[in-house]
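Input chain follows. Return structure tokens only.
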Amino acid sequence: MIADMLPPRSKSSDAAGETGYRTKAEWAYLQVRGWIQSGILEPEERLDQEELAARLGISRIPLRQALVKLQSDGLIVSRPHAGATVAPLSLTDAEDIYAARAVLEPMLTEAAAATMGEEAIGELRQIVARQETAGEAGDRLLFLDLDREFHERLYHGAGYRISLDLVNRLRDLSERYVALYQGDAQRSQATLSEHDEILGHCAARDGAAAAAAMRDHIRHGIEYLRKRAGAPGSDISE
């Protein structure tokens, strides 16, 4: 049941009203999107609106508005007489997303490595250390947040605003896939080692090596997903 997996119930007055500018529908959208992207809500899981509304502490009207937006994002699917379910993970989509990432992210890594100073590298190493601590504590959500922060902070140093915007959009699309393989302890440990390797090349100002390491990092992710899916074109099981 949804209620068994989700974080504790929040008061809608605090959650939606605290920031002042978010409606309950907007807040619900962000919450449910986060649960889907992190894997708390699993692929093809049925979404019980009554349970979700109770967990979020809101009525079903703003929740339905949030679900409509999530459907337009491709994160949920709705079928007549069957209700809404979390969208399946498609290997075809993953191949598409990761092919684009493999072009843009090494480019940004190489550009960032050329100008990255010791302070920036130190900050990135701290993120990796915090990520390792989160992994040891079994805090999957924090591990994923820090993984994204590592990549965003690294690419920010490249100075390519449009490419960075594109990468952030690709990261939104790939978040569910990243959550899937980062839930594997062996793959999570490999991620930390690969982050360290990338930073080592950045510290040496070896942009080409840093780009190659990033390319390998992305390739390892899609290779894991291929193994999970089995046959080409198949959905990826949780």
